[in-house]
Design a protein that fits this description.
482 residues; mainly alpha; 19 helices
């Protein structure tokens, strides 16, 4: 019998690289709670301050497609040290920067660090885990993806209530240098040889244009819709949204076309011809729209409809985040023991109950019920989400796993950005013309927007479940022929 124990150095490597990715994703969501304070400090409006998050997401999404090339070309330790350097440099600039453009530069650097660290963690797990332990270790890795954005608002609200906002970055630098760096230097190992892979610059530019165009389309479409509903001028935003969509889709089509004809493509896409894997990918992109977007919805509905403080609204997502911290590895253990079908479908049938209950009680929510129903969603989501990627990558050839990892992580980031843009637009449309913030009519309008949002969430999760059911049916038919 082969030794199926989890090596201690593998655990250390996951902790070292995962902590970098965790810090990167955490600071992404921490900043959203700080927007009012940042607007006052830098004298910028709402549309401008949003770029602190938008530009970070764009850079992360643009860096993710490089992960396949980086994984083939460079050693894991080299990539780890690059991620450490980028994380520390970005945090230092955030601490000393006193001009808004400088803060944006820092967010670009931090986004590059997260874009390197997150897929590196997944590649290490997939390459070095014992086969019988892949599910549970992917569940551990999923903690980074699911818990960090969930507790970000809580951390941001807590820190900003007692310390200057820059203290967040003062705190993370010692964690990186005293925990992540030494553990990584000792534990990150190379188990597969590097290759003489070449960077296809034209394809990289095209995928960056595609991601930036699509994210900007979502952002500007939301601005245009909100302006139109409130009676303002939406022409500029609508034109910008249309141009961004054309550029994004055109660049994406070019990327796919050139990848088929390239001798050394940036990302090899042949494995996407398998409909079972493709259906997994669609579900994996749809679910973060709800999973990551929930943090925005909960905090805004709590403050603008229920009248809670920023700190309390951030704390409402904490129970769901903590349950995610516990059950993501449990979901992986269930996958290792029972296979993919029951653990994944059972988890998301449980998860969809959360937004269903939120919709039913949307006009009479309290902070307790808001947190409680989100807790139900967080339980199911954390139990099943990482298993989708695990099962998909198990069904492609090992040499294509870095490519699959790059595509899945890129779709995850895009889904998260799409969720925030979609749900903020829905709430803005509902609030348009409802009076001043804090008034009874404005609170009622926010509650109505919340009900629309929860209905949208139900539809998105239902589509994802249907994709997974179809994928499992394809897999069952294949197995029956063997």
């Amino acid at each position: 019998m082969p030794d199926e124990r989890i090596p201690g150095k593998l655990i250390g490597a996951i902790v070292a690289v995962g902590s970098l990715a965790f810090i990167g994703i955490l600071t992404e969501t921490v900043m959203t709670v700080l927007f009012p304070q940042l607007m006052r400090e830098f004298n910028v409006d709402t549309a401008t301050v949003q770029w602190i998050t938008t530009i970070y997401l764009l850079v992360v999404a643009a860096t993710m497609p490089l992960s396949s090339y980086l994984n083939r070309r460079f050693k894991h330790r080299t990539l780890f040290l690059a991620a450490v350097a980028l994380a520390v440099l970005g945090s230092l600039i955030m601490i000393v920067g006193h001009a808004f453009p400088v803060i944006l530069i820092a967010r670009v650097i931090q986004g590059m660090g997260s874009g390197v660290a997150t897929p590196l963690m997944i590649n290490i797990i997939l390459e070095q885990s014992p086969k019988s332990k892949v599910g549970r270790l992917m569940g551990v890795g999923s903690l980074v993806i699911t818990v960090a954005p969930a507790i970000g608002p809580t951390v941001g609200g807590a820190v900003s209530s007692i310390l200057p906002w820059r203290a967040i970055f003062v705190i993370v630098i010692p964690i990186i240098l005293l925990v992540s760096l030494p553990v990584g230097l000792k534990c990150v190992e190379q188990h597969r040889p590097t290759e003489e892979a070449r960077l296809n610059s034209l394809q990289f530019v095209s995928i960056v244009l595609a991601l930036c165009g699509l994210v900007m389309f979502l952002n500007q479409a939301g601005v245009a819709v909100s302006a139109a509903v409130s009676g303002g001028s939406a022409t500029v935003s609508a034109v910008f949204a249309g141009v961004s969509l054309i550029v994004g889709l055109g660049a994406l089509l070019f990327f796919g076309w050139s990848s088929k004809r390239s001798f050394s493509p940036l990302i090899r896409l042949g494995w996407l011809r398998d409909p079972m894997v493709l259906l997994h990918l669609i579900a994996y992109m749809l679910l973060p729209i709800v999973g990551i977007g929930f943090g925005y919805v909960i905090t805004n509905v709590a403050q603008l409809s229920l009248g809670t403080s920023a700190f309390l609204s951030g704390a409402l997502v904490l129970p769901g985040a903590l349950i995610g911290a516990f059950f993501a590895p449990v979901g992986g253990m269930l996958y290792d023991r029972f296979g993919p079908v029951r653990p994944i479908l059972g988890a998301f049938f449980a998860a969809i109950c959360g937004p269903i209950l939120l919709l039913v009680f949307s006009m009479r929510l309290t902070p307790v019920t808001l947190a409680g129903f989100y807790f139900i969603f967080g339980f199911g989501y954390s139990l099943g989400f990482s298993n989708i990627m695990t099962n998909a990558l198990r069904n492609i050839a090992p040499q294509f796993m870095p490519d699959g990892n790059a595509v899945f992580n890129t779709c995850l980031q895009f889904g998260g950005a799409a969720g925030t843009a979609l749900f903020s637009t829905i709430l803005s449309v509902a609030q348009a013309g409802a009076g001043e913030e804090g008034s009874t009519t404005f609170r009622h309008a926010t509650a109505v927007g919340g009900s629309w949002t929860f209905a949208t969430m139900i539809g998105i999760v239902a589509i994802a479940i249907c994709c997974l059911i179809a994928a499992f049916r394809i897999g069952a038919k294949r197995n029956s022929r063997l």
